[in-house]
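Researcher: Quick one. three chains, 705 residues in total.
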Amino acid sequence: MNTIAFTTAGQELAAALDPRFGRAANFLIYDTTQKSTRIIENQQGRSAAQGAGIQAAETIVRAGVDTLVTGHCGPKAFKVLEAAGVKVFNCNAATVDEALHELLAGRLTAAENSDVEGHW
Amino acid sequence: MSRDHIRELVVLSGKGGTGKTSLTASFALLASKAVLADCDVDAADLHLLLTPMVEQRHAFMSGHEAVIRQQDCTGCGICLDSCRFDAIRKEGAACRIDPVACEGCGVCHRLCPAKAIDFPERVCGEWMVSGTRCGPMVHAQLGVAAENSGKLVTTVREQAWAVAVDKRIPLIISDGPPGIGCPVIASLSGVSLAVVITEPTVSGLHDLQRLLALARHFSVPTAVCVNKWDINPQQTERIEAAAHAAGAAILGRIRYDRSVTQAQLQQKAVVELDAAAGNDIRVIWKQVTELL
Amino acid sequence: MAESTLEKPFRIAVASGKGGTGKTTVALNLAAMFGEPVQLADCDVEEPNVNLFLRCDQLTPTEVTMLVPEVDQQRCNGCGACGELCQFRGIVAVGTRALVFPELCHGCGGCALVCPTGAITERPHRIGTISTGQSGAIRLIEGRLEVGVSLVPPVIRAVREQLQDELPAILDAPPGTSCPVVATLRECDYLLLVTDPTPFGLHDLKLAVALARELNLPCGVVVNRAGEDLVGLYGYCRSENLPVLLSLPDDRQIAEITSRGDLLAHALPEYGLMFAELAEKLKQELGAAGGRP
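Model:
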């Protein structure tokens, strides 16, 4: 767990955690060794008419992320993330900061399946 | 204004034609100040009740379409043979694409040996920011044969949020898309409250349950009201019991009242008329403000 | 049952710009009072509910399939050419393999064409079901989209393919004016537009008429929930030369009967007569328009 992505509409750790994955505005990437953050815009995911989750998952994979923390992840995005070896953690924390603490404290368990069914 | 102080309310219905837009317009009038977002782009009717003055227009692009440059086409017919959507015809020496039938898959563009096929972004409609008597409104208009999508709904909602932040208006009310597909999901995620309006019919209950399940997945609180409840009181009770069991708040009932049609004819919200159904909606609105 | 009075059996699509105008009610009751054997096709494949009213219990189902890619992972080298071509995220290359999402695939076949290692073949994937049944003189054809599939037009096409040429047909279109409606209207002879006299109804009627004009389809109007204020609607119909073939009053009995899933024409004979007249008028309109070429 070195490079963690969080879904958010904001720019910094104090920003709200976005429960959406595919159509989240940004991914906040936290590097655990450097303790640094950077922002990747989910431009392509949000501009997809369909398959936003898949597109967002590709963006995450390309950014070299190994862990994703988000509200809900659909089955298609999950399939891509799983194939690329990215671990997914579902979390309903209010902010990215809180989500990070819960993750580092070991209070979140990696999802084995998508937590939402069907066509989302 | 910080985004944290803004509440967003979406009105949904499952099947179309259950009074969703009339209820949204009434809410808009009853809220002293709100930004309106019309996410029901298939039947974007909110503007008919709120008569907006358009202030900004922007093209809405989604997907791509293939266009053959006639002068460069050699008429070889490779595109025609590879198109699975029956969208290409030979006209004289060159081929031509029927824009309505074109699926936007890009296969012809890729295969054309003469590189005579362009693949530009498709203009699907436009989105607008307008002023109305109840506040600013963001809405969209699709071209013929274009479809609503999660992308268009996301665009309308984002613009509504931008207006709310900019004009310091603490409430967004959106008229949600019909159905339970991708556009509904895009309209639902992250909102403060989803109000579902349904009718006491055989299909109403089914649609309602699917919507409530969807909202639950996105941790969105839900509240339900039954329109024209008195045309089938038994079914109304069944719907309310199912809604309660699914964890939704019951907002109240709206009676069958021709004034609703009268209001539409006068381009007004029901609550602007002296109508029994309008009083029912006032009771419902009070419940909504408490839940918000 | 009388022989068809027409030289060629025609196809009438019943549509409306938006949902909830009574489109299915009109299609059903028109079929019930058609006066001769008729086919009724439920093209609202996302939410088919004609049979909630017809209640045919013996439905014969057939599968509707579309070709989707299948990847031989032994041959795939993860080059990503398929994913770059695909406009719909139906196939995505991740690392050294390609993942297929049949529910997003549009069946264009492009990925198989561009794969440099020949790792992609195509296989049929179920996207819906067509069911046929008989209820009195009505032959029902119902299309139903598989849950989680968003490709409506191919299922509608499959419904149309089940129509028999020797019988007239009524097609209950999906709401709106988007691709699924266009798919329904292909090869129809007449478009019956159901509207109500509200500004919503009129606005959506205008969109539907624009579509009919673009497709060169003759059309007529059924006004549902006709109240006192019909001036705007009738004025529009006159100016566009649209015949108003039936006007149903704003009668709460209609709403009550329909909410129970009963057939209006059977429950209230006076309405039955109105639909029988509508059928006659349509046959005349179609006679004048020349029927299907």
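The mean pLDDT of chain A is 88.
Researcher: Thanks, that's what I needed.
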